[in-house]
Write a structure and sequence with these properties.
By secondary structure, the chain is α+β, with helices and mostly antiparallel strands. It is 43% helix and 14% strand.
């Protein structure tokens, strides 16, 4: 409101305050407001001025001392229940009076809006606040800071990783325990594991080639008296991420330097005059270098490089299978015809139960079944059907493939570790333990992609001839099979 000459400075401040907060005034304050309006218009008499002067002065003083401004610092805050406080004894300073005057004048000139009469201020409704003002009000929920979803996710991820790490440690610890348990297992009978033989291993271009030799050694046999029933090269860790297995038939005729006819040439018919399995026996007689002799023979005749070797005899094989597969290995037993007739069961030699030089027999039926270590060994060694040694080689491949495919069962983690430990304890091999721990998991995963197999020679792909001792052997096309090995990635 505009300044009048009929009012003092404090009366004018009081009138402006009452005018701005008209809708919040009580009866006494409204009476005071009407008095000041009449006085400003010059209509009040002297008696009314005298009777109201003290009250108006007290009211003006109270408003200057007790009023508090809102957050903007412009409009006086409407007094609530807490406004009826005990008055402070300290009097307002001149600066406080000047600040109150400026706040009242600014509120009346800039912020106050009047109603249709032009006298009273317009009462602010519920919708008078802008949306932005409403949103700017702090809420109790916002004041309580909650962790963000990203922080919660990171916390959960850390917990999952921690428990996974603990789980891996426990599994690895268990596998190590079972491995060393198997490693410390005593050998059946009165024999000790063969010493690691000299082996001049070489790396190949793709993956690692391991020479696996299955010998016909029994308890009490000397290594110089044993022969190799199976000769295999296993390729692992290749770029194709699959295992590759090559079986060499033991009667394949080869050339052995220092043993074969020295006067012949590779083009002569009698150049290849030694059976492949003879290389092992000759090497064992030469300061126990049977595995090295086989490696050298495969290098000379097939240009095949080999890094590691493993010698597995009858007892080692059966013990490892029974440890790894307590319920047996699932097999689909297949035999060729015998004397041209199909069979439903076959009597096979039971070598592990040989007593006093007499080998008993075991009956194996054709079809699906679980085989323990002894039965699986007898099945793999049988060669009295019409396929002869080729059928035996095929069954050996089937056995090894079944073992590799069924070992990927997670339940075999611990029993498999024990079996591997027993194999190490009972087997002559130069495969380091570090290789198993660094490559073992990848080998199991690669086995899921299947095993690529090759038999040298394949059925019917040979010429029947004789070795230098008059024994029947198989003469093959070496250059053709070198090419096959190259295509498989073993050379």
């Amino acid at each position: 409101m505009s300044r009048t000459e009929n009012l003092s400075r404090h009366e004018q401040l009081r009138l402006d305050y009452l005018h701005t907060n008209y809708y919040y005034l009580n009866a006494n304050e409204k009476e005071e407001y009407n008095y000041l309006r009449q006085k400003a218009k010059g209509r009040s008499d002297i008696a009314q001025q005298t009777s109201r002067k003290a009250s108006a002065k007290a009211t003006v003083q109270a408003s200057s001392e007790d009023s508090r401004t809102d957050s903007s610092g412009l409009l006086p805050k409407y007094p609530g229940k807490g406004a009826f406080r005990r008055k402070q004894k300290q009097s307002p300073t001149s600066s406080q009076e000047e600040q109150a005057k400026k706040a009242s004048l600014q509120a009346s000139s800039e912020s106050m809006r009047t109603d249709s009469s032009g006298l009273l201020p317009e009462y602010p409704g519920k919708n008078s606040l802008s949306r932005s003002q409403k949103n700017s009000r702090p809420s109790s929920k916002q004041e309580k800071k909650k962790p963000s979803s990203k922080t919660y996710t990171r916390f959960n991820l850390k917990r999952v990783l921690m428990w996974f790490f603990i789980f891996v440690i426990l599994v690895v610890s268990g596998m190590l325990f079972m491995f060393f348990k198997g490693l410390n297992t005593s050998r059946p009978g009165n024999l000790k594991a063969a010493d690691v033989e000299y082996f001049d291993g070489h790396d190949t271009r793709d993956g690692i080639n391991i020479l696996v030799l299955g010998t016909d050694g029994r308890i009490g046999d000397k290594s110089t008296e044993t022969r190799t029933d199976s000769i295999m090269v296993l390729n692992v860790g290749n770029k194709d991420h699959k295992m590759k297995l090559v079986s060499f038939m033991r009667d394949t005729l080869i050339h052995i330097d220092g043993v074969s006819n020295s006067y012949t040439e590779p083009t002569d018919d009698d150049y290849y005059d030694q059976k492949l399995n003879a290389a092992y026996t000759l090497g064992e007689q030469d300061n126990h270098r049977g595995a090295e002799a086989v490696r050298q023979a495969l290098k000379d005749n097939f240009d095949l490089d080999i890094k590691y070797y493993a010698l597995v005899d009858f007892n080692t094989f059966a013990t490892a299978i029974d440890t790894l597969f307590p319920n047996g290995v699932f097999m689909d037993a297949k035999f060729s015809t015998i004397d041209g007739e199909k069979v439903t069961e076959v009597e096979v030699p039971d070598d592990l139960n040989m007593k006093d030089g007499v080998v008993p027999t075991q009956t194996i039926k054709v079809g699906r079944q679980h085989m323990d270590g002894r039965t699986l060994l007898n099945y793999a060694r049988f060669r009295k059907d019409d396929e002869g040694d080729f059928g035996r080689t095929r069954r050996q491949q089937e056995v090894l493939t079944a073992v590799m495919q069924q070992i990927k069962d997670p339940t075999k983690l611990f029993t498999g570790s024990e079996a591997i430990g027993k194999v190490f304890a009972l087997t002559s091999t130069n495969v380091p333990q570090s290789f198993l721990w660094t490559q073992g998991l990848s080998l199991v995963l690669d086995s899921r992609n299947g095993i690529e197999r090759l038999t040298i020679p394949e059925l019917g792909d040979w010429t029947d001839t004789y070795d230098m001792y008059g024994g029947q052997g198989l003469l093959i096309d070496f250059e053709a099979y070198k090419e096959r090995l190259q295509q498989m990635g073993l050379r």
